[in-house]
């Protein structure tokens, strides 16, 4: 038994929700072929498009499926082929796509012994291997689609949020690698009450904006006074890109996950395209290679 799947890219944090908010892009992602084999054990049989470890215990998809099988209680055989399109260290959930895609496919091939919500904790094992931290804000939207909120890590409580139809994401990926582990090391572990109040006000506003489809409220809430000031210095032209996106009508803009990708969220495809053109102009002058993605959230 075998299945070919699309494993989507995701944008985590969304400015106001560090480690808790994320959303799923519907046209950017990897392909994977997952098979149940007669030979017990998890094997990575092929990786194309990236130089990633083939050893199961060093591969994010491998460790995620091993965590799944441990809970499933049977040591069946699984073969994993990965066709990477999302570059590692891009900030759009490369490791999350592999780990969540693999566990989703194995669950499907076995007749869905686990709910999609239950798969999140297995996919998080891949994130732990990739970044040293089992964050769920990329794997949850990769598995559940749309926007998701990690209401709590302990116990794990993932909430699927509403996704307003007209939201469109523009993402620029400058081709410099920023490892999540490195961009986590620049963050301070203490925040002032003043900043915490600012941030949780915006997080509540963002979630309310999604459910009421209040695009202006979504835009007002896309603000980050805790993480962005520290991480943005790792990203060339960050402020220029963000300002240009907002000048072109984007609702808001910020760092995608741990960077270096920068996202801009817009209402409607026309604004998202105008934003893409403006930020492309900025990056063309830098000489740094880049990709731009425009995607609905689904
Ligand atoms: N919340 C994580 C971080 C996402 O910002 O480190 C990584 O994509």
TrEMBL record:
Main location: cytoplasm
KW Nucleotide-binding (keyword) present: yes
Entry EC no(s): 2.7.1.39
UniProt pathway: Amino-acid biosynthesis; L-threonine biosynthesis; L-threonine from L-aspartate: step 4/5
Catalytic activities: L-homoserine + ATP = O-phospho-L-homoserine + ADP + H(+)
Pfam families per UniProt: GHMP_kinases_C, GHMP_kinases_N
Enzyme category, top tier: transferase
Any one Gene Ontology molecular-function term assigned to this protein's record: ATP binding
InterPro entries membership: GHMP_kinase_C_dom, GHMP_kinase_C_sf, GHMP_kinase_N_dom, Homoserine_kinase, Ribosomal_Su5_D2-typ_SF, Ribsml_uS5_D2-typ_fold_subgr
The protein's role, per its UniProt record: Catalyzes the ATP-dependent phosphorylation of L-homoserine to L-homoserine phosphate.
Protein name: Homoserine kinase
Organism whose genome encodes this protein: Aquimarina atlantica
């Amino acid at each position: 038994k075998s299945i070919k799947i699309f494993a989507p890219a995701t944008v985590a944090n969304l400015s106001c929700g560090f480690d808790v908010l994320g959303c799923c892009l519907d046209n950017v992602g990897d392909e994977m072929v997952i098979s149940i084999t007669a030979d017990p054990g998890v094997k990575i049989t092929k990786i194309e498009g990236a130089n990633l470890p083939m050893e199961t215990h060093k591969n994010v998809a491998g460790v995620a499926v091993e965590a799944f099988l441990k809970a499933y209680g049977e040591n069946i055989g699984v073969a994993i082929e990965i066709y990477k399109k999302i570059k590692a260290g891009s900030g759009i959930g490369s490791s999350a796509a592999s780990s969540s895609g693999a566990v989703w496919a194995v669950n499907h091939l076995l007749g869905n012994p686990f709910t999609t919500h239950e798969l999140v904790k297995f996919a998080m094992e891949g994130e732990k291997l990739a970044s040293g931290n089992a964050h769920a804000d990329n794997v949850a939207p990769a598995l559940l689609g749309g926007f998701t909120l990690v209401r709590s890590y302990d116990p794990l409580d993932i909430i699927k949020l509403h996704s307003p139809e007209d939201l469109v994401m523009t993402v620029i990926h400058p081709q410099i690698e920023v490892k999540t582990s490195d961009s986590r090391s620049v963050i301070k572990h203490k925040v002032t009450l003043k900043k915490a109040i600012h941030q949780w006000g915006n997080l509540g506003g963002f979630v309310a904006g999604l459910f009421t489809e209040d695009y202006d409220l979504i835009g007002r809430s896309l603000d980050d006074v805790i993480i962005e000031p520290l991480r943005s210095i790792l990203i060339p032209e960050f402020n220029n890109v963000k300002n240009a996106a907002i000048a072109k009508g984007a609702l808001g803009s910020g760092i995608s996950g741990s960077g270096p990708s920068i996202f801009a969220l817009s209402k409607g495809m026309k604004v998202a395209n105008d934003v893409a053109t403006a930020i492309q102009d900025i990056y063309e002058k830098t000489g740094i290679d880049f990709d731009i993605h425009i995607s609905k959230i689904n």
